[in-house]
């Protein structure tokens, strides 16, 4: 790789970092630890790297010690693993300092990156990596990297982070204030409909921005990266999953729905495409806690990593957006340790079960006609499940406590639920 081209890429990127708006996020990083930041595109991974770089300079580091390479830069087209060593050589041409800090953005674009990452970490260099594919955290990659990096998943803004970014108070006093609470509710409505992409927060046409992100994920991170040939079947699958948010769906059913449109596909293709969408952090799934293994894996409930993405596919589906927002919030706090609970024997159907907190959650836009159904499932679940500590119903606006047979069910509005740090 031409060293002058690399120098130009690195120096241009330093100007970007110096002039970038840094958004405070609820993520912390240990000193002298190498990290791999993964997550959905445009969720703020690069900005976190910018923040790290600027903090290094504030602490006494020279800008010449910062080597930042964005592998999506068009000047790096054709970059291969054989070119990685040119980055090291170029770094030593740019600085006389002993310590160098390497920042590699979207490094997964280059096949074989993990071997270089292992080598440079073994040389006791400081390295920070971002990527938009969950395969970077696979057991195979972890084996190659040999524990040299700490992984951290970065998600779009939480509701609390959105409030911070928009400078809207959301502490207990603000929630009790009539005027401030009204602003929080309005902001929550916008968050549920447009999601948490940082760059979309102040846009007048957030939908177009979110659509462009979706197309980049679909075309770049899934179709091109995974070499998907049946693009139409993939698009229809994602659309069908969006329409079934709130409900479990089998891969057989997905294949059947797509075949009904005249396209050729198979159950195996649906399994493969869904895995691609999950690897690109477009979708995640919850599994039935009470099912046997085959059904657990074969009949999931899917959710979108950001509500703005789901909203692209829905017309007047406030209930689905509400439940997706709850799912995303739980995924942020508890990772993959969230389930749904559905038993044909008992008739119990619980939207979310968090074993770590012994908590069961139902989601209902309002309780006008749904109260009996939602409370019946929760009460029956608590009766048949040991050590249940908390029962909740998340609604659009309602807030109260339901007490039946010495059991308490909290009814909490979505804007308050999304501000909880834990259950």
From TrEMBL:
Organism phylogeny: Bacteria, Bacillati, Bacillota, Negativicutes, Selenomonadales
Domain of life assignment: Bacteria
Organism: Schwartzia succinivorans DSM 10502
Domain annotation AAA: ranges: 35-162
Residue stretches making up the DUF4143 domain: 221-365
Family matches, as Pfam families: AAA_14, DUF4143
Protein name according to UniProt: Uncharacterized protein
């Amino acid at each position: 790789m031409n060293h002058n081209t690399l120098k130009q890429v690195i120096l241009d990127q330093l100007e970007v970092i110096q002039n970038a708006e840094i958004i405070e996020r609820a993520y912390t990083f240990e000193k002298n630890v190498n990290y791999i930041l993964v997550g959905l595109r445009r969720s703020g991974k690069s900005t976190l790297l910018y923040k790290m770089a600027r903090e290094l300079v504030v602490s006494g580091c020279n800008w010449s010690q910062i080597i930042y390479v964005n592998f999506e830069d068009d000047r790096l087209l054709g970059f291969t693993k054989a070119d990685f060593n040119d980055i090291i050589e170029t770094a030593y041409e740019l600085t006389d300092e002993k310590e160098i800090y390497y920042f590699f953005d979207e490094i997964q674009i280059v096949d074989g990156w993990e071997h270089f990452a292992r080598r440079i970490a073994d040389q006791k260099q400081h390295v920070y990596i971002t990527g938009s594919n969950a395969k970077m955290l696979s057991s195979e990659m972890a084996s190659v990297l040999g524990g040299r990096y700490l992984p951290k998943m970065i998600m779009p803004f939480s509701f609390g982070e959105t409030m911070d970014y928009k400078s809207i108070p959301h502490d207990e006093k603000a929630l009790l204030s009539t005027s401030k609470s009204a602003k929080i509710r309005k902001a929550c409505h916008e968050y549920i409909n447009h999601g948490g992409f940082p760059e979309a927060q102040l846009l007048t046409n957030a939908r177009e921005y979110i659509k462009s992100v979706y197309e980049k994920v679909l075309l770049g991170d899934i179709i091109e990266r995974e070499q998907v040939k049946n693009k139409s079947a993939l698009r229809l699958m994602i659309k069908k999953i969006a329409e079934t948010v709130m409900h479990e769906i089998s891969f057989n059913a997905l294949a059947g729905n797509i075949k009904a449109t005249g396209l050729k596909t198979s159950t195996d293709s649906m399994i493969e495409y869904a895995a691609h969408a999950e690897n690109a952090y477009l979708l995640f799934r919850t599994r039935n806690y009470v099912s046997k293994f085959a059904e657990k894996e074969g009949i999931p409930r899917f959710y979108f990593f950001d509500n703005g993405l789901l909203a692209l596919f829905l017309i007047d589906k406030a209930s689905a957006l509400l439940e997706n927002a709850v799912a995303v919030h739980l995924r942020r706090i508890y990772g993959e340790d969230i389930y749904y609970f559905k038993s044909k024997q008992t008739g119990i159907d619980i939207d979310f079960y968090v074993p770590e907190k012994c908590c069961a959650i139902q989601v209902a836009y309002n309780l006008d006609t749904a109260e009996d159904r939602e409370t019946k499932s929760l009460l029956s679940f608590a009766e048949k499940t040991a050590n249940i500590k908390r029962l909740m119903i998340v609604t659009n606006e309602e807030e109260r406590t339901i007490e039946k047979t010495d059991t308490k069910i909290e009814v909490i509005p979505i804007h308050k639920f999304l501000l909880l740090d834990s259950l």
